[in-house]
Amino acid sequence: MFSGLLTKVAKVLRGVGHKLVDQLWRFGGAVRFSGYVLLYSGESFRRLHLTIREIYFTGVMSLIIILVSAFFVGMVLALQGYNTLQKYGSSEAIGVLVALSLVRELGPVVTALLFAGRAGTAITAEIGLMKATEQLSAMEMMAVSPIARVVAPRFWAGVISMPLLAALFSMVGVLGGYLVAVPLIGVDNGAFWSQMQANVDFREDIVNGVIKSVVFGVACTMIALFEGFDAPPTAEGVSRATTRTVVNSSLAVLALDFIMTSFMINP
Amino acid sequence: MTDNIVEIDNLSFGYKGRQLHKGINMVFPRGKVVAIMGGSGSGKTTLLRLIGGQLKPTRGEVRVGGKVVHHQDRDGLHTLRRKMGMLFQFGALFTDLSVYENVAFPMREHTDLPETMIRDLVMMKLNAVGLRGAAQLMPTELSGGMARRVALARAVALDPSIIMYDEPFAGLDPISMGVVCNLIRSLNDALGATSIVVTHDVHETFSFVDYVYFVGNGVVVAEGTPDELRHSDLPFVHQFVHGEADGPVPFHYPAPDYAAEMLRGHNV
Ligand SMILES: Nc1ncnc2c1ncn2[C@@H]1O[C@H](COP(=O)(O)OP(=O)(O)O)[C@@H](O)[C@H]1O
Ligand SMILES: [Mg+2]
Would the pLDDT of B1 be above 50? Predict the structure, then answer.
């Protein structure tokens, strides 16, 4: 009875240990992979057209969903913000509230989450499929490095397009907030913009927002690429990898956001 | 003796501890078309990957042009691979590039030829496989046989001296099969190359190759010219050549005794 329990506990422990070691190996693999991608990055700059093509694809792919989401997020921010601010008689501050929330947090974070779901999954599926259909092997046999030719351009495309998309998100979000606050609710037009201009700081707010979205760009793209490259070369393997891209990117974005915010906000 | 462009010497290899090749010896004389035959899962594809340096042998070695493949560094390996063309089992065409761009790919990667020259070369290669008219199609618009031929044009884009084919006939109708057979032979002879054809289609293969190796259980079980093998009375070769279901290559995956298994759970 007692020894039965003991073997059960041992079995569970062993299972957990195996999982842990596996994850550690995978993480090591991911780090090595990232190293290679950086090492081979020269190639993707020497042949810029490859990278530009990928920027076009990832950017265009996520553009519509990001613009539409930004518009709604901006409108909701204005509604919620107005509701609270007017209780304290400072409803003209609505412009600042919308702009700061977008530039500092929601722009980079929501863009990254949408990017992971739209462009990230597409990257993982594409690379996984290229692997499953031996396209990467074929490339290797032609003495062309798949990391240099396929992975690195996609990486830099992601890193470059993320801040651009986040900037667009913030702009369209502010527009959405404006439409709700000024024409709809009737906040003073001049106050809305002047308050915003006076209280959004270039260094503290905008630069920090850009830093965040660059970091998210690195994380999301690298995760998507690694999951695709590491996927078992089967239909099931690729579909699992795609799911993992969304889960891991989202967690990474939220965790990184917390860490970066805690460094950026000086008490 | 020195005229073997590829030599496989006592080669052993296994995935994760499971031995797949147990001391394989083969030679591929310059200018010949040589077939490697064996059942599915006998490690034929793996053998091609070992020749191409994508895998490292656990024992023994592969020499290409006198150089030991797994002793090469990255640059050495690239130099060796520049001399090889490989046709993957399902073509492995780049799905995001047109037929034209697929064939142009190795030229763009490895040469600085001007666009007009690339165009002429691509059209020449596509013409050789009869698909010049399909240049602007995307790989998804091709049938299996056409994709295989485009992949062949891409594999020979830089006039390799060794061409490897992984199951070039799998899933092809008899007409496409004949077409591919003729192509392999004529490309080999036109380029003065050496071809290695991995397959299990006995009849097609015997009609056009110069020499055949049979692999089974990780070793070469028989070898010879097609004529010698047709008249061979080795049981393995006989089974393979005449397509018998059971023989030295068992039909059954290893299993417990059938009667015992049927009776299990019945109280007898
Ligand atoms: N990357 C791999 N990892 C582990 N096992 C593999 C891998 N590739 C192939 N195998 C196994 O090796 C054996 C031989 O594979 P392969 O060389 O593809 O055989 P063939 O081409 O003769 O059908 C198969 O049993 C296959 O499951
Ligand atoms: Mg195979």
Answer: no
* A39 touches B: beta carbon within 8 Å: no
Which token pair is B255? 């299993």
Over range A93-113, report the average pLDDT.
94
**Cβ distance A155 to A41 under 8 Å?**
yes
Kindly state if the Cβ of B41 falls inside 6 Å of ligand 1. Answer: yes
The mean per-residue pLDDT over the stretch B63-82 comes to 91
Q: Which domain holds residue A241?
A: 14-264
Looking at this predicted complex, what is its ipTM?
A: 0.82
Task: Pick the more confident residue, A11 or B255.
Answer: A11
The number of folded domains in chain B is: 1
Residue B13's beta-bridge partner residues? B21
CATH number for position B222: 3.40.50.300
Domain tally, chain A: 1
B108 touches A: beta carbon within 8 Å:
no
Name the nearest CA neighbour of A55 among A166, A204, A208, A159.
A159
H-helix or E-strand spanning residue A163 = helix A152-179
Residue nearest to ligand 1 atom 8, measured at CA = B46
Q: Whose CA is nearest to atom 27 of ligand 1?
A: B41
Instruction: Please indicate, yes or no, if residue B128 is contained in any of the structural domains.
Output: no
Model confidence pLDDT, tens digit, residues B203-248: 888 889 999 999 988 899 889 999 888 887 777 777 777 776 666 6
Both tokens of residue A160?
């470059």
Residue A2 inside a domain? The answer is no
